[in-house]
Design goal:
By secondary structure, the chain is of the alpha/beta class. The protein has eleven helices and nine strands. The mean pLDDT is about 95.
Length: about 325
Amino acid sequence: MKTAMRIDNLQYANWSEKIFRQMREGGLDAVHVTIAYHETFRETVLNFEQWNRWFEQYSDLIMKGHFASDVDRARETGRTAIFFGFQNPSPIEDDIGLVEIVHTLGARFMQLTYNNQSLLATGCYEDYDAGLTRMGKQVIREMNRVGLVVDMSHSGDRSTIEAAEHSERPIAITHANPHEWMPALRNKRDDVIRAVTENGGMLGFSLYPHHLKDKSACTLESFCEMIARTAAKFGPEHLGIGSDLCQDQPDSVVEWMRVGRWSKQIDYGEGSAANPGFPPQPDWFRDNRDFGNIENGLRALGMDSGEIAGIMGDNWYRFYAENFTPKG
């Protein structure tokens, strides 16, 4: 008998055989991994090359995912399908033609911004959100055409709402939580979540401690109650998990994520100068082996089994099936 589908729609770990084996122990059928933060096109291609070597070296544990059918193949062969995404549009540089190229290489999600203003939209850390740019509207149209999902996880409120309304296909917030549960610059207010979900989009709940109530001390019950309330408000079919797990990463990688090459100063973001690295994960979600704890927590609240299955993986699977393929 097959277990319920499990998909984590955002991780950025220091990838290793240990982590790939933990994915299997946790029953992860698919994981969306960040393959670029601030990289140029050529630098991103090098990251694709590195993943190709891992697919070859650990072919019994992981496989490259292109479409939803690859999740089925991964389940049948006891592996985890890996789908790629960018947390910044930097890999397409200023060339709209690269949108189709990166999709051909295997990218399936691309954020229009990473905290700052980009050529496409405004990030959630800017003082003023001007919304989508002219290039942003054109790039969304091209992303819709080729099957590259618009991700607004690090974008400002106006930009996110405009993206949801402008896009002809559903968009995603792959890793964030409701602002009313935990106020943070990147957590999303109700009008933003509503704009995304009413247009068929998805919200992936994040386990990044700075976005959790009580941070690293957040309880499983509190996290699951937040999911249940969000499901009641916006519909459980629009929700999934995007843990934002950044396992085993050194502080130098945290610095790269937050700063890239755009500043000479250290931008601590939601961290602090006293603790520039990653905060500890909650003890009930330390790594991929703990993924099932969320399912148990939702069950303990009395949530419907079908809704739980959707949140743990079925909803992302459906979203993949509808949005990764080119139009026409």
